[in-house]
Write a structure and sequence with these properties.
The structure is a homodimer. In chain A, 45% of the residues lie in helices and 16% in strands. Chain A is an alpha/beta fold. Chain A folds into 3 domains: 4-22 and 236-365, 3-Layer(aba) Sandwich (Rossmann fold); 27-231, Rossmann fold (3-Layer(aba) Sandwich); 397-429, no CATH class. In chain A, the strands form 3 sheets. In chain A, strands 1-11-10-9-12-13 form a 6-stranded parallel sheet, with helices on both faces. A 5-stranded parallel sheet of chain A has the order 6-5-4-7-8, sandwiched between helices. In chain A, helix 4 crosses helix 6 (171-180) and helix 9 (250-261) crosses helix 10. The first copy, chain A, is globular, with a radius of gyration of 26 Å. Chain A starts with a strand and ends in a 6-residue tail after the last helix. The interface between A and B is large, with 116 and 116 residues. Strand 14 of chain A pairs parallel with strand 13 of chain B. Chains A, B: NAD(+) binds at residues 130, 192, 215.
Chain lengths: 432, 432
Amino acid sequence: MLKRMTFKGNLKEIETKLHGRKTEISAEVNKSVLDIITNVANGGDKALLEYCAKFDGFKPESATDLIVTKQEIMDAVTRIGPDFIRILERTKEQLITYHKNQVEKSWTIYKEDGVILGSKVTPIDTVALYVPGGTATYPSTVMMNAIPAKLAGVKHLYIITPVKADGKVSDVILAAAYVAGIETIYKAGGAQGVAAAAYGTKTIKKADKIVGPGNIFVATAKKLCYGVVDIDMIAGPSEILIVADESANPKYVAADLMSQAEHDRLASAILITTSEKLIDEVDQELERQIVSLPRAEIIRESIKNYGGAVLADDLKHAFEVSNDLAPEHLEVLTANPIEALPLITNAGSIFLGEYSPEPLGDYMSGTNHVLPTGGTAKFYSALGVYDFIKHSAYSYYPKDVLATFKDDVMTFAHKEGLDAHANSLKVRFEED
Amino acid sequence: MLKRMTFKGNLKEIETKLHGRKTEISAEVNKSVLDIITNVANGGDKALLEYCAKFDGFKPESATDLIVTKQEIMDAVTRIGPDFIRILERTKEQLITYHKNQVEKSWTIYKEDGVILGSKVTPIDTVALYVPGGTATYPSTVMMNAIPAKLAGVKHLYIITPVKADGKVSDVILAAAYVAGIETIYKAGGAQGVAAAAYGTKTIKKADKIVGPGNIFVATAKKLCYGVVDIDMIAGPSEILIVADESANPKYVAADLMSQAEHDRLASAILITTSEKLIDEVDQELERQIVSLPRAEIIRESIKNYGGAVLADDLKHAFEVSNDLAPEHLEVLTANPIEALPLITNAGSIFLGEYSPEPLGDYMSGTNHVLPTGGTAKFYSALGVYDFIKHSAYSYYPKDVLATFKDDVMTFAHKEGLDAHANSLKVRFEED
């Protein structure tokens, strides 16, 4: 079932194929999204309400009806029930355990000559979290975005999400928001919801950053609003890459390949191994296990198109291939998985050993599941607290120290043809 | 000379005007840059050499002639002379003093139950630094980009820069590269240079990230290659905002406003003060000092269009206005400048006190001069070591701990309709 790929011959081809899996935005989608943004930017709540009626079939009397009430949240929590609330709470605790290590502090250097240099860490003030409605409603994603933003100290964190025709938002989203500590939720989804967050309306506070996944209209709206607001990465199709040696259990390898392959037909699942025998055994396990999986058809297609097995010379070789592919999820199923860490340079999230399966990381390992895809792990990180802060540099120089820099700075400025820069130093020492 | 702006009435207007100063890319530029990128991506060195001949008038025999030789670098260093090399060395030391504090370490948590969680910090492997030729040749910018990249541990850091018709690169660029420790410099500028770095050719190694300023063709090429490679921020026109009380010296205020206003006609220089008297005195100083400045005409125009003075009720008020504008450079010329730090939330770089002028920060304060513009300091930081690394999360769970999560993860996965995710947990405990 897994295609065999040889390392030497096909890596470039695999890489091109994997990294090329981008959803193209049609000119038509682009145009209609741009119209929506322009109308909401200019028309505010009124335009937003019109789109709400048009696309969601929900016709509230006024824009305040777009705000989810405390009662609605509490009713959803009750309906969801204590067991799932407990699971969400546990997820939250796990995420805090991991992400609190990412919290950065402002720092200052006090030099002996009186110079003070530093960096002030400030949270982004207002962040909008887009949460899709419909079939792909993932409460886990609410938690993955909300917890780092909360730990960063974001003052205003709110959710924008599509509303159903009856004016309701999915219980599971409200429950996740409740556990994550998000109190403000707007019934405003699609491109119009993104536009409202980007430009602000009377009801919806203008955001500085918009995060969270969404369909093609949401992703296009985020791209088009980028600059007016910051946005997070646009996630591509999911990927898993497993590096395994002969010690790996083929049952687990097969299960984990399928756990990502089930996401959608563009998902990728690749095995790189030093054991040809393992490839054969994994193939058998894939066939054995797939029959019980509801999404078997999707799994078969994504493995057929974007799956495969690479036979590597040795583990060093295997990780070289993996580093070139820069996978979103990397499982290390070898005899000594922790020893692999020095060899890994490009990967969104690394799962070490046979009892750290990727799906644990999707929910409860504590690490984030919002990860770079399509080879962008070569330059991007998992979503983290660092995505919700910024650094402002600061400097304080006493006069006598500035005096020692005066001539050099003026020479430098003149060299660059910037005489008013030099003048700023000159005027400070004219009396001397 | 400074327009008076009232806080209550016009802030939104000022903000819109300042944050709207974006250079529009014409469809024509976009099309011609896209052609260049496509041709270089497909044609490699051959296409690059053709563009080199067409745009720069330089016709080397082969692509290896695009590589600056060690001899060329040493000759440039000799011509530049020891005094300016010393200034560059001093700049480098100052930058290291500041930026070494930004170096991040990998971290690991060892939990008592045997769980290991961590984050591996890895430098981006290959970074191309674009350095403009021609009139806007800033050796300072070479240093500002190179030092954080070097401190991050970037393995392959190279420069791409336009070549003159005689096949030479500006001495000052080569000297700055020498001091910064960059050994590889390619004579490949413009959109074609960017394309070569983004896609790689036989001669030029494919970069993972491209940084550095450039003209409209370079900026457009970077935007169009984004995704294939990472890019840095596209810098907008320069800005200075000065918050001053009655203790400020109008001579310094005027000089510093002009130091940014001289950059170009779109530059912005704004004074926010609690002292009406200061505004009048600054006006007089502007007129007195401007007569000696070669770029007086540019200064007059940028101050006329994007300059102004805001009279604030008190300092708290002044910093509220400043935070809304989120300036690239913020000077604090008040009696107790360090006390202002808690009030400042949005600013690229903060200059505290009357002997820490902004031009010092352009060259030698140690802080970076590559800064967010156009209000993007609300969500972006100064360029730093963090721009050249990425974090890979990792997790290791022992079997008995995974067992305690099994049921919750499976419940969560089923709730999200992802049965193959649940299966990954299930198969691991089938024997039990």
